[in-house]
Amino acid sequence: MTAELAGRTALVTGATSGIGKAAALKLAEYGATVLVHGRDTARGTAVVDQIEQAGGKSRFVGADLSNPDEVAQLAAEVGPVDILVNNAGSSWFGPSSELTVATYDRLFDGNVRSAYLLTAALAPEMARNGGGTIINVGSMVGRVGLSGGAAYSATKAALEAMTRSWAVEYGADHVRVNVVAPGPVYTDGSVPERTTALGNTTLLNRAAQPEEIAETIAFLASPRADYITGATIAVDGGRTAV
Ligand SMILES: NC(=O)c1ccc[n+]([C@@H]2O[C@H](COP(=O)([O-])OP(=O)(O)OC[C@H]3O[C@@H](n4cnc5c(N)ncnc54)[C@H](OP(=O)(O)O)[C@@H]3O)[C@@H](O)[C@H]2O)c1
Questions:
Q1: What would the CATH number be for the domain defined by 9-235?
Q2: Catalytic option among 30, 116, 152, 227
Q3: Where does the Ketoreductase domain lie (predicted)?
Q4: Which 3 state secondary structure label does DSSP give 57?
Q5: For the chain, how far is it from start to end, CA to CA, in angstroms?
Q6: Which residue ranges have their beta carbon within 6 Å of ligand 1?
Q7: Contact 138, 91 (CB under 8 A)
Q8: CA-wise closest residue to 236 among 185, 177, 160, 179
């Protein structure tokens, strides 16, 4: 266990499950105090317990990020953070003609607006405090087309575009902003058969475990990535390389 993030506070959204949970555990292992965010208090508390049992520091913060008032409340409640991981999100795949307006709004409110509002609320304080780092969890579908994924893909492409603009806006104040773009990952939010099938289309011929994505998130949060900003790092078994 290295303590390269000792003294830093990290907020990980959607840390009750999957990639966010793995990122929270990894950042805590590196010494950060981790604010575990989600909607499900029981699952959030279980992640906090796991971190504390391993000797780390953590607490749960609840909010439905599709509600702008709750995003503002969350930002106020957590106070200044050094590391923000905008991970919470959901997907929908199916014929575009069958996507309802409510689902379209859920995707954009939960995946895009939430990250926008949280970053806008927390990045200025990072800047005033001398710097920080923001990691947005995108997806390979922000770059490649998958049938039935038009709206979800657009939310991830939007995150990449916002990331580049934020890298410009906050770079001079030493706030680094990057995207980690996973390929298929086995999580509660993914359908196992679909994940396996997609994994078989990658150069490595398999899907990933959440911990493999968390490694890159933790690297980008660390001083070892001090010269990386405005980048999208693909962690997709090479799927977007060809
Ligand atoms: N799994 C994949 O194959 C894959 C691939 C590429 C990218 N991604 C991206 O990676 C991220 C995490 O995905 P995952 O597969 O790990 O998902 P997951 O297991 O379904 O977990 C999603 C997390 O996000 C939280 N969340 C979702 N909507 C929320 C909202 N409106 N307000 C507050 N919290 C919300 C959930 O909180 P509660 O459960 O507490 O409500 C949960 O902690 C997402 O952005 C996803 O698009 C996933």
A1: 3.40.50.720
A2: 152
A3: 8-188
A4: strand
A5: 36
A6: 14-20, 38-40, 43, 64-66, 87-91, 110, 137, 139, 182, 184-185, 187-190, 195
A7: no
A8: 185
